[in-house]
């Protein structure tokens, strides 16, 4: 777990050996303590180098250990012992030195980094703080302001910047361990006093730094507590002697360590990694499915989605044919794609990559690409026509993907002569910014097609989740019910401001009505028309607030009919100062409209409290999550949670909807859903899902055990 050898007779080399990232699990800590003591004891050894095997210094403390009682030697005395040693200790940093890994390096007297290495204290992203002296040593090394920024954001710093900040002493393009060994030999005999960071004096931080940072964090963190504790710990470094600062660091860590937020964030970390190991109901899985390389891709449609997808592909170095039949749209799309790529180039001080895109109006130009992503608007007839043509034009082994957000992938696959090559690649707007990608497998999608889309997603820097084919897939299927509940709450007496305030207090970046104004009310209107819920396809024999046999709120349709489409028309659920305005203001006109609406339909407004807003909106979403798991559309709760955190603004420190259900308690969720279903029998989806009932019947097992209660995948392979 840590190997020891002697080099050149006098250099003690300690190599951390705990693949894949040399995390500091208890055996590793034990081994480091032992080997350091051995090197310090050995009279032949004059200096020590600490490195990591397999090109990685250290990924930090072993996060998996946090869930159980911590055993083995603690990090703090181990790092103190290194710093206090009388022989120079040099950290040779390759790959990463994160968290406890960097704290270990800060206890060494010198740090040499490979030029491609990255360092950082990302504990805050796990709901923690760097509690192995990081909050006290880093400010003494870099000054308070840079340390505060790094510790409160968890930002990763590339070696050249780390050198500028003083975090490392030297950056090398050569073999880092060899350079560190030579360096260690060269400093033997030099005084170590001023290399011990715990002994350094801190210069005064700029006035108001902590107050300003705290204010920014409170605005940005949406209720997350770890960044606040990080500020308090760094403030202790700036105001107290080292030892007292360490005590403060330890006490603050104790408040975070067992918090629900830390558990949620650590769950999120592993959930994000688990979705990469996808498996399908037919038994295919990532372990046995090989992806094909994509060298040339095509995007059809240069609306908002298409443009973002083109930019993402180009950023990943893939050559793209961008096809659009509408001349005006082609022109605008081209201008916007090039503008984004030029801005990228300016930012990175590099040449724009526009040469990778070829714009065209002709579908026939797509004959030689490896993969096509269709991103035209949501019209099944149009999409089918495109897929039929693609099936004839594209080379036989080209993958045909659709960016549909809700339509049936199997229906599209059926019009092609190669249904096994068809998958959904559902990007989220703006596609060059949003991290999430739903990879939708159809009935006939081959494992190779799914693997290729997942791999491509990874290459584009997306968090990709493989999901089954059903209306709305995972994200939008759940979202629909959440939006509907929000509209029902307005009918019953709430205002958009009240609903949004409750959701934002919960931690969403934006309340649902602000989101709707931002994306445009016409988006949902089009979907509802397509589904026959409004417009020409409606069965008008039903009462006005019932459609297709259940409760329906026409509120959003009525706003659309008035032309109130959100930000772009300056009115929607809120009022904006001008079309395209961003700053929502309560709209008295909308409030009067709600009063008239209620009176027209004989609805009596009542006071609705925040708990009801949250339960109605979130528990209906969670209930649908259980249905999705039961249907096998998502393979585990982590998939649902990753989708909500990365695509729908669910606060990361609350883990995701399924994790939240586990935290709240499954019996409570069940009981509240039963209550609301009884109160609203005309809303079928409030009826608790059979899976939720099954879990409660089985004693509400923790989320990590839920997969055992899902229908087992069966192999058709
Ligand atoms: C009272 C207690 C006091 C304790 C004081 C503690 C103070 C210190 C705290 C910490 O150090 S917290 C940890 C801080 N470190 C991090 O947050 C780093 C997390 N890891 C990463 O960012 C990345 O994994 C990586 C290191 C950059 C590598 O990325 P890469 O893309 O190459 O691989 P991944 O797929 O992400 O990871 C591979 C594999 O390794 C697992 N893993 C990664 N880091 C850790 C870790 N720190 N602990 C445990 N496991 C880790 C990861 O889950 C993957 O596992 P599998 O999915 O393959 O099983």
Question: How is this structure best described in words?
Answer:
Monomer. InterPro entries: 3-OHacyl-CoA_DH_NAD-bd (IPR006176), 3HC_DH_C (IPR006108), 6-PGluconate_DH-like_C_sf (IPR008927), ClpP/crotonase-like_dom_sf (IPR029045), Enoyl-CoA_hyd/isom_CS (IPR018376), Enoyl-CoA_hydra/iso (IPR001753), NAD(P)-bd_dom_sf (IPR036291). Residues 472-576, 613-702 form the 3-hydroxyacyl-CoA dehydrogenase C-terminal domain. This protein has 717 residues and is an alpha/beta fold. It has four domains: 2-257, 2-enoyl-CoA Hydratase, Chain A, domain 1 (Alpha-Beta Complex), CATH 3.90.226; 296-471, Rossmann fold; 494-500 and 510-600, Orthogonal Bundle (N-(1-d-carboxylethyl)-l-norvaline Dehydrogenase, domain 2); 610-709, N-(1-d-carboxylethyl)-l-norvaline Dehydrogenase, domain 2, CATH 1.10.1040. The strands form four sheets. The chain has an eight-stranded mixed sheet, with helices on both faces. Helix 4 (134-142) crosses helix 5. The radius of gyration is 28 Å and the shape is globular. The model has no long low-confidence stretch (mean pLDDT 96). Bound molecules: ligand LOHRUJSQ. Ligand LOHRUJSQ binds next to strand 5, helix 10 and helix 11.
Salient structural properties:
six-stranded mixed β-sheet; binds ligand LOHRUJSQ; 4 domains; single chain; Rossmann fold; eight-stranded mixed β-sheet; N-(1-d-carboxylethyl)-l-norvaline Dehydrogenase, domain 2; 2-enoyl-CoA Hydratase, Chain A, domain 1; 11% strand; alpha/beta; 27 helices; 717 residues
